[in-house]
Design brief:
The complex is a heterodimer. Chain A is mostly helical. Chain A has helices at 5-24, 27-43, 51-76, 86-96, 115-119, 122-134, 137-147, 153-160, 164-191. Chain B starts with a helix and ends with a helix. The chains are: A mainly alpha, B mainly alpha. Chain A binds chain B through residues 15, 18-19, 52, 55-56, 58-59, 63, 93, 97, 100-103, 108-112, 115, 119, 122, 125-126, 128-129, 146-149, 152-153, 167-169, 171-172, 175-176, 178-179, 182-183, and chain B through 3-6, 8-9, 12-13, 15-17, 35-37, 39-40, 42-44, 46-60.
Chain lengths: 192, 60
């Protein structure tokens, strides 16, 4: 039995929009990406048997649209530096490491109990999304290009005009920020 | 001997590129002796998996 695509598309639209907004941090651009995705989806001919496979397929289209938009934006704003994001980074570093570069006792990473059980909970994904939104915008963008759009660091360098070593620093900063947020806001309480 | 700060940078890069032999050995030694960094390395894998699920439509 085939899905009623038109109504599924409307039902999934808010999720698509959230996904695009998270990465583009620009409501207008996110709206464009989603519209183009919906248009492409309506003109495609293959059928889907479940909502989740349809959604996965839609997200893969949306992902390409987001990459296109990022590509255009970085052409318009060439070699944008990530320096604006640096300030908060020094603060985080000081709260995590002591002078010789070892963990502050209070910041030593803990063992996250049963991540799989967390993935099952809707509340976890709300916290996860909040933590992504908490990252500085440019840092978040590079991280999501890597993790959600599946670009390798070479492609990210090309699209954003930063060097590979800068890219690794930014990704490291993003992961550090994200795991610190998740540990504080989720695993130290609910997950433990 | 790596500091934890240096080790965390390598544990992030490990997700993005192949580490050289010397880097791998230094990291292995560090993680063997440092419970915090050992946990950190597992956390990096959890993050990757969470992103994979979130990004493939698993987001709620």
């Amino acid at each position: 039995m085939e899905l009623d695509r038109q109504s599924e598309l409307n039902a999934l639209r808010p999720d698509l929009l959230r996904f695009a907004r998270l990465q583009l941090r620009d409501a207008g651009a996110a709206e464009d990406a989603v519209q183009e995705t919906m248009l492409a989806a309506l003109t495609a001919s293959q059928g889907f048997e479940s909502r989740s496979s349809y959604k996965t397929w839609l997200i893969s289209i949306l992902r390409n649209k987001i990459v296109d938009i990022i590509r255009t934006q970085s052409r318009e704003l060439p070699a944008s530096s990530l320096a604006d994001d640096d300030e908060g980074d020094a603060l985080l570093d000081e709260s995590l490491f002591e002078a010789r570069g070892h963990w502050q006792p209070s910041a030593r990473p803990m063992r996250w109990a049963d991540p799989e059980a967390s993935f099952e909970q809707q509340q976890f994904w709300i916290v996860f999304e909040a933590c992504l939104n908490h990252l500085p915008p440019k840092t978040a963008r590079v991280f999501m290009m890597r993790e959600f759009l599946g670009l390798d660091t070479g492609e990210i360098c090309k699209e954003t005009g930063i060097s590979s070593s800068n890219c690794w620093v930014v990704l490291h900063r993003a992961r550090m920020g994200l795991r610190t947020c998740l540990e504080t806001r989720w695993f130290a309480g609910a997950g433990a | 001997m790596l500091s934890c700060r240096e080790a965390t940078a390598l544990m992030s890069q490990e997700q993005d590129r192949h580490l050289g032999m010397a880097e791998r050995m230094a990291l292995r030694l560090h993680v063997l002796m440092c419970a915090g960094c050992n946990n950190y390395r597992r956390q990096m894998n959890v993050l990757r998996e969470a992103c994979r699920r979130f990004g493939s439509g698993g987001m709620q």
